[in-house]
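Reply to dn_fold:

You asked what the input looked like. This is it:
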Amino acid sequence: NYKKGEIAESKWLFWKNPKIIVAGMTKEIEATYTESPLAIGIGVYAIYTFDRFNPKYILALLNSKYLSYFLKINFRDKHLAGGYLAINKSTIEQLPIVEANDKEQQSLVVIVDKILALTELEDYPLNLGKQTKVYEYEKQIDGMVYKLYGLADEEIEIIENSK
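and this is what came back:
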């Protein structure tokens, strides 16, 4: 049982409030969004203030191929053995989050909501049709992100072909 004063109010609010969770060691940026109370452990980071952005818009950007590519190219000092990247608070803060109007943000949020709905279904890992649909949605997000960042076809080709 929680007694007032045992846990700092800021920690309690962090636990209770919506947040984007980001894996600290991965080959590509992996992030998810939760509105449920959730405590996180060591090596996992969270974004819990969103300023003028919809958190699901930020989630779409973080999980895009572009930001993973950006991280790999611009943070070579974060590379670990086996192709893993060490992601921390400082790294996350340095990622370029492009300004977008409400309509642009909402178009990405709609797709993120579709992905979250599919992945929350119990039989998701067993259903290849759902996995295929998630992949299609992720491709749509990548295309929209490329446009938001104003990438040329040559740049997109490099990103799409990188591992």
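The longest helix spans residues 128-148.
Hope that clears it up.
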